[in-house]
Write a structure and sequence with these properties.
Layout (H helix, E strand, L loop, with lengths): L8 H12 L16 H16 L3 E4 L5 E5 L8 E7 L12 H18 L5 E7 L12 H7 L18 H6 L15 E9 L4 H4 L4 E7 L1 E10 L3 E2 L11 H19 L4 E3 L3 E4 L5 E2 L2 E10 L2 H22 L2 E10 L2 E2 L2 H13 L4 E6 L4 H5 L5 E6 L15 H19 L1
Parallel strand pairs: 3-4, 3-5, 5-16, 6-15
Antiparallel strand pairs: 1-2, 2-4, 6-14, 6-16, 7-12, 7-13, 8-11, 9-12, 10-12
Helix pairs in contact: 1-3, 1-11, 3-11, 7-8
Bound molecules: (2S)-amino(hydroxy)ethanoic acid (HGY) and manganese (II) ion (MN) (2 copies).
Length: 411
């Protein structure tokens, strides 16, 4: 790699471990859910770190944390760089967290080496991206860009029946808050682990994302009749688990029939009353569907919903579905992507352009302001798992590219 920039990769590793400690699980994963105690400790500890890095930290009305480095030109717009602080349940140390740490290390390096930028830079720790606690994802970036307003978070409950509003209030944040939508974002730059195996397989160190796939999420509820597991003959049952299994099997089998790049996942399933000797009254499952073309998503979702309706009539059981996410496939900004490509070529870093199969805050910002998304490799392509890992040298290389990127944009 050709560059005069150097940072201490061990220091980056210490930052990763430090942030992972907020929500460490017994098998080495991380669980840090929107507004939970680990989230609160992480966000307020990051606020302290931003202060130590000489940034002006502040929280907005939904808990997004910003660290501002004022530009000398005193322009209205700011360059935003960062990622999300929340995780999936028992996730990895790097998803989201790396992007925040990389941005903090990069802006701190630039300030130490070049002083104040011409353009204001803000490091952001976005409050929520995963949709792990409540049936709503991209709450942080969605609030900044106006995709979401306070009305979108009412009547949402987590699995412990705690309401979104109550969780926000317990953080000292007001649900009836002033709008947090911002009009002063110049561009958004995110660096993130790939969460796939392409870079590792092709021995590339940096991925430059051209597009992020569109993503739809549903909650499907099958309503049958609970009854005795021993005394109810099979023909007399309205077994919601049996029907749910049919719907799930059909849905997942349809995917490869329709398009090789379509993916669908049933990641969560809850039976009620959820005991071994009772035929379940209700089974609720989630469905996550992704593709980079909206028309493929339209066709697939239309097909499976028609099947749900048909099976509901045949079985005499109710099948209800609610779509609670619809994030469009988004192209990243051409000018920023070209600049990123120019930088990695100049530095002679092995790189490739690619589509992101994972969703990112960059796809929400991408419909709102010029946005770029960079990847570093994921070991074995594993993510959303305690086994998630990226080598220190890859983490360091990503930060060096981010430093150069921000330097070109802001100084
Ligand atoms: O689900 C995703 O693709 C992202 O990690 N939130
Ligand atoms: Mn994730
Ligand atoms: Mn992520």
């Amino acid at each position: 790699m050709k560059t005069t920039i150097d940072i201490d990769s061990k220091e980056v590793g210490r930052w990763i471990e430090w942030l992972a400690a907020f929500g460490y699980t017994k098998n080495g994963g991380v669980t840090r859910l929107l507004y939970d105690e680990n989230w609160r400790l992480a966000q307020f500890s990051l606020l302290q770190k931003m202060k130590e890095c000489g940034l002006n930290p502040y929280l907005d009305g939904v808990g997004n944390l910003f660290g501002r480095l004022e530009g000398t030109l005193q322009e209205e717009k700011a360059i935003l760089t960062g990622s999300h602080i929340d995780t999936v349940i028992d996730g990895g140390k790097y998803d989201g967290a790396y992007g925040i740490i990389a941005s903090l290390v990069a802006v701190n390096y630039l300030k130490e080496r070049y002083g104040l930028p011409k353009k204001t830079i803000e490091v952001v720790s976005l409050c929520e991206e995963e949709g792990s606690r409540f049936p709503l994802a991209f709450w942080g970036s969605g609030s900044i860009t106006g995709k979401f307003t306070k009305d979108d978070c009412h009547e949402l409950y987590d699995t412990k029946n705690i309401s979104f509003s109550h969780a926000m209030l317990s953080m000292g944040l007001q649900t009836e808050r002033e709008q947090v939508k911002r009009e002063d974002i110049d561009c958004f730059i995110e660096i993130h682990i790939e969460q796939g195996a392409v870079l590792e397989k092709e021995q590339k160190s940096i991925g430059i994302v051209s597009h992020i796939v569109g993503q739809r999420r549903f909650t499907v509820k099958v309503i049958g009749e609970s009854n005795h597991a021993g005394t109810t003959p099979m023909p007399y049952r309205k077994d919601s688990m049996h029907l749910a299994a049919e719907l799930i099997t059909y849905t997942l089998n349809q995917v490869t029939e329709i398009d090789s790049q379509l993916v669908a996942t049933v990641g969560k399933i809850i039976a009620s009353p959820n005991v071994p000797n009772v035929i379940p009254k209700e089974v609720t499952f989630t469905l996550d569907v992704r593709h980079h073309q909206e028309e493929v998503l339209d066709f697939f979702c239309g097909k499976i919903i028609a099947y749900f309706k048909q099976k509901s009539i045949e079985s005499g059981m109710n099948v209800e579905w609610e779509q609670w996410m619809d994030v469009k496939a988004v192209a990243m900004d051409d000018r920023l992507t070209k600049l990123a490509h120019h930088i990695v070529q100049e530095m002679e870093i092995p790189n490739r352009t690619m589509i992101s199969g994972a969703g990112h805050d960059a796809q929400v910002f991408g419909t709102y302001c010029p946005t770029a998304l960079l990847f570093v490799p994921s070991a074995g392509g594993i993510s959303h798992s305690p086994k998630e890992h990226t080598d220190l040298e890859d983490l360091k290389r990503g930060i060096i590219v981010l430093i150069e990127f921000l330097q070109r944009l802001a100084y």
